[in-house]
Predict the structure.
Amino acid sequence: MEEDDFSLFAEEVAGIKKMRKDEVYLGKKGPSVDFSERKKAAMIAPEKDSNHLSADYVEKVDINDVLAYKKDGVQEGVFKRLRQGKYGIESRLDLHRRTVNQARELVYQFVGDCMRNDIRVAILVHGKGDRTPDNQATIKSYINKWLKEMDDVMAFHTAQQYHGGLGAVYILFKKSEKARLEAWEQHQKR
């Protein structure tokens, strides 16, 4: 019986020739893959972070400090209405339980999103910082610095108590070109 199996096997493999290579490619059949685009993408340096907000040194503000800032050109009446919370809030960002780096990314993205969506007034909740171990208003201090550095922020002020008080700020954004044109057209109809 063993001889039968052996002779049967010998007959089956009689015409097989030894391969010249010691390795065998078991890849899928189909069109060959062009890896040149992947190589090019890997060679290109990653894009530089366009976020100009710095997480370096910041002048600390106290947990009880009122934040207020107004660029030249913002009318006193507009700033007063912002300070009093009389504008409708169109967008909100909450930074509770965020690190400085997370807050930096979120604030930069938030301002960009507000500008792309023609939002004029938003509220940013940063917290007071009174629950931190060192009782420091770290995020509040950075918000005070970052918002002043952003061209699209025209003014900001600590919110009214019913909107978060010392733990939040109202932000007035620059009008987009689209909103500016609409206002101009509406003014011309008068």
Q: What stands out?
A: The mean pLDDT is 85. The radius of gyration is 32 Å. The longest helix spans residues 100-116.
